[in-house]
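Q: What residues go here?
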């Protein structure tokens, strides 16, 4: 099979670079969001979708896991949510003639943007081993081919079953059940590349890998620290929550190497003052940290908290909380006292005054929330950094009381729910026991592969079959060259998708695409219209009801696809009535209610207009289900990323007009970039040090001790106010730069936010 690198449809001739914006949202935000929607969808479909998006009887936005407030506005969505809906609900279909016209080789020459713009997939297609083309097949034949392949494998562990985080609870539960009944725990997911570090750290420290706050805690907080997160683009409705918090007197601190627009100023499109005025000043303190410097910063702040306590005993620490609920304090205090300020300054690039100011804010605030996302989780020391976030919160009892807590902000709209449903390669024995008792079979106990190890297993020939329930793994995972090669080495790949993407062109010997309904679409089964449910970032579970007819008559829902595949593969090997799953999703929810704690009377409770909130030990009652039964204050060895002379640390991030690997347009409005993505943002002083000038064509080359060449060539250097020594480029293109072996300790998440690179004048 041919190997070709990913194609980016960017022409430097068109690229326009302007000034970065200071503010996010506002009038242009809303207008931009409505225009393309109306054009592509037609007025009636648009109105129906936009008025039901995130409403109580409507559907849940698939753009992020941000929660819905109890009192919803008429337009309870953001510009980026509207883009996601438009992108999915387009009535344009990939025509039947497409597959004869375009070979796999031809698809390899297309960009993600082009692939996505071909429209919705509507018929199953199959690429036989001896062919370069997909061809349409019946659903029955598709399941037969997959079932036969799975049953021919020497071991169930030769297969791997990926999930991306849009999958509903119902589909996810059915899928993991099928996979475990088939006999493997190889259930990697997008979370492995996303918030895995969060789950690892939080489970160890507080006993649960999820946010310890509820939605209305934001308005009760008096200090919110937003670390490593760009809400203006990735969780735009969070800006409204931050604005409300500010109105109630909260202070906001942004810790970020970049002055992201939404963190500086916010013009609320729902308020007249926001539309006409200068908007709300967001961050009271902007801490412009170096990439990977957060662990040092957090330790330095904790050191100051302990010093303040020593200076005025009994006034700073929450002794009652620490004595009653925490373990490990003494060892921590001893360790933190030895933190070296010089190392902290080197690691963070900050001044002592800035660190003192942050410590002072923390010490003088009664209710503190710390939120974080990929700027924290995708580092080598991510797990330890998150433990330091928790340490800092625990010192003053900022967990398990109103307006305070640890709040990872999830990405995909149901990535958290998928995990709750058992999509994880390392589910606990308690979960597996419950599955066994409910379905009367013995699930495998050996842990499976995660996303990164799954790629390595494919490379080594140990995984021969790969299936993806959504997502675009070869584009999303690190080390594109190696990952694509690994995927091509498999015997069969199967993707359940709404639209075409790169992973449909980088396939095993045999390949199938199974088209599926999206969340916007009405799903009618034997028992009548069905709905699905999802869990947001603050553990609230609610229904999502499709609103418009499916774009094609023979599309199947994800639940139906999983149920039929299970029947075709397992026949009656396990006593599960898969047909009843497909006919009536209440049947699945009833099973879930007996397997997953917190889901009692699921079908009934999820029908209430607000859904229900899952129990959460730390939040509800300061119950910590760790090994010791206490919240563990931990000692973590400080390590910062060394940056040799002449090198830069590069982060890979999202533009305003993309959803992960889906590219909506080539613009990144808030950062002043138009009509192009092949840019690398560098601090002007670093450009000068490197002998480069703004606008110059450069090559970005990874510095990693192996003989693989990892480079992006002919990029345009953009002078940008990022922290010194740091650079940034857009993912997924920049995944070619991230080495497969560069992973977070303890969570195995690719280190996408600190790639050591050289930026040199282009050789092209
Ligand atoms: N519109 C839209 N919405 C999305 C997505 C999308 O692609 N588009 N993706 C969804 C998904 S799956 C996810 S996980 C989330 C991602 O949401 P984010 O985590 O906001 O996404 P990134 O673009 O990766 O941005 C990382 C942010 O962290 C900062 N950062 C990077 N490194 C460091 C560091 O070392 N320290 C600190 N303090 N900051 C750092 C970057 O400058 C940037 O502001 O968004 C979700 N929502
Ligand atoms: N370098 C670098 N790499 C990263 C990141 C980074 O910051 N830097 N971020 C990482 C993160 S946080 C994440 S979450 C991963 C994302 O990894 P993935 O979740 O694998 O990627 P997505 O781009 O979100 O997947 C998009 C595809 O999902 C399919 N799809 C969309 N909606 C549906 C649906 O309703 N059903 C089904 N079945 N399919 C659907 C479409 O075919 C679409 O092309 O990428 C990771 N990779
Ligand atoms: Mo994510």
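A:
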């Amino acid at each position: 099979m041919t190997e070709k690198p990913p194609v980016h449809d960017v022409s430097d001739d068109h690229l326009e670079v302007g000034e970065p914006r200071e503010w996010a949202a506002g009038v242009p935000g809303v207008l931009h969001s409505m225009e393309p929607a109306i054009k592509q969808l037609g007025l009636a479909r648009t109105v129906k979708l936009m008025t039901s998006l995130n409403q109580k009887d409507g559907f849940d936005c698939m753009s992020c896991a941000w929660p819905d407030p109890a009192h919803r506005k008429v337009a309870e969505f953001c510009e980026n949510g509207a883009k996601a809906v438009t992108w999915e609900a387009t009535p344009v279909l990939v025509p039947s003639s497409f597959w004869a016209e375009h070979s796999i080789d031809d698809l390899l020459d297309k960009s993600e943007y082009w692939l996505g713009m071909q429209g919705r997939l509507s018929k199953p297609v199959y690429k036989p081993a001896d062919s370069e083309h997909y061809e349409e097949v019946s659903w029955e034949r598709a399941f037969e081919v997959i079932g036969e392949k799975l049953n021919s494998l020497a071991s169930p562990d030769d297969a791997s079953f990926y999930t991306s985080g849009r999958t509903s609870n119902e589909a996810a539960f059915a899928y993991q059940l099928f996979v475990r009944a088939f006999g493997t725990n190889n259930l990697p997911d997008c979370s492995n590349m996303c918030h895995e570090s969060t789950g690892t750290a939080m489970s160890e420290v507080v006993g649960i890998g999820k946010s310890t706050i509820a939605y209305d805690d934001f308005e009760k907080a008096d200090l919110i620290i937003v670390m490593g997160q760009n809400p203006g683009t990735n969780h735009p409705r969070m800006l409204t929550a931050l604005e409300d918090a500010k109105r109630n007197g909260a202070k906001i601190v942004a810790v970020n190497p970049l002055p992201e627009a939404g963190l500086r100023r916010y013009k609320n499109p729902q308020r007249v003052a926001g539309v006409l005025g200068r908007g709300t000043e967001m961050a009271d303190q902007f801490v412009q940290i170096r990439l990977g410097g957060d662990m040092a910063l957090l330790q330095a702040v904790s050191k100051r908290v302990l010093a303040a306590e020593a200076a005025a005993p009994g006034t700073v620490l929450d002794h009652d909380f620490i004595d009653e609920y925490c373990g490990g304090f003494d060892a921590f205090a001893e360790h933190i006292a030895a933190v070296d300020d010089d190392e902290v300054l080197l690691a963070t690039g900050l001044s002592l005054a800035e660190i003192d100011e942050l410590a002072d804010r923390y010490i003088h605030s009664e209710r503190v929330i710390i939120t974080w996302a990929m700027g924290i989780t995708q580092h080598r020391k991510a797990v330890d950094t998150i433990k330091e976030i928790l340490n800092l919160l625990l010192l003053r009892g900022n967990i398990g009381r109103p307006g305070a807590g640890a709040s990872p902000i999830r990405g995909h709209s149901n990535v958290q729910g998928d995990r709750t449903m058992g999509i994880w390669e390392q589910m606990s024995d308690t979960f597996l026991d419950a599955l066994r008792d409910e379905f009367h079979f013995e699930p495998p106990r050996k842990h499976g592969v995660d996303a990164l190890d799954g790629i390595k297993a494919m490379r080594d020939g140990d995984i021969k079959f790969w299936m993806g329930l959504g997502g675009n793994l070869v584009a999303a995972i690190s080390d594109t060259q190696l990952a694509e090669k690994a995927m091509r080495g498999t015997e069969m790949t199967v993707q359940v998708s709404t639209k075409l993407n790169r992973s449909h062109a980088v396939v095993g010997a045999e390949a199938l695409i199974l088209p599926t309904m999206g969340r916007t679409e009405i799903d009618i089964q034997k028992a009548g219209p069905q709905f699905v449910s999802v869990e947001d970032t603050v553990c609230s579970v609610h229904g999502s009801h499709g609103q418009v007819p499916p774009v094609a008559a023979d599309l199947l829902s994800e639940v139906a696809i999983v149920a039929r595949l299970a029947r075709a593969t397992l026949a009656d090997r396990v006593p599960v009535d898969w047909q009843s799953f497909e006919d009536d999703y209440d049947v699945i929810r009833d099973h879930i209610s007996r397997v997953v704690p917190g889901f009692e009377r699921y079908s009934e409770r999820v029908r209430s207009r607000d859904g229900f909130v899952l129990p959460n030990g730390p939040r509800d009652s300061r119950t910590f289900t760790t090994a010791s039964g206490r919240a563990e204050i931990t000692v973590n060895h400080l390590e910062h990323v060394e940056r040799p002379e002449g090198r830069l640390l590069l982060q890979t991030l999202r533009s305003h007009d993309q959803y992960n690997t889906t590219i909506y347009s080539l613009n990144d409005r808030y950062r002043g970039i138009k009509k192009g993505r092949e840019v690398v943002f560098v601090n002007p002083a670093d450009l000068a040090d490197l002998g480069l000038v703004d606008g110059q064509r450069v090559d970005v080359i990874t510095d990693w001790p192996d003989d693989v060449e990892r480079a992006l060539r002919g990029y345009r250097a953009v002078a940008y106010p990022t922290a010194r020594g740091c650079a940034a480029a857009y993912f997924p293109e920049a995944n070619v730069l991230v080495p497969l072996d560069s992973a977070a300790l303890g969570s195995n998440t690719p280190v996408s936010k600190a790639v050591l690179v050289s930026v040199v004048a282009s050789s092209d």
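A: Context that may help when evaluating the design: The longest strand covers residues 711-719. Residues 294-311 form the longest helix (18 residues).
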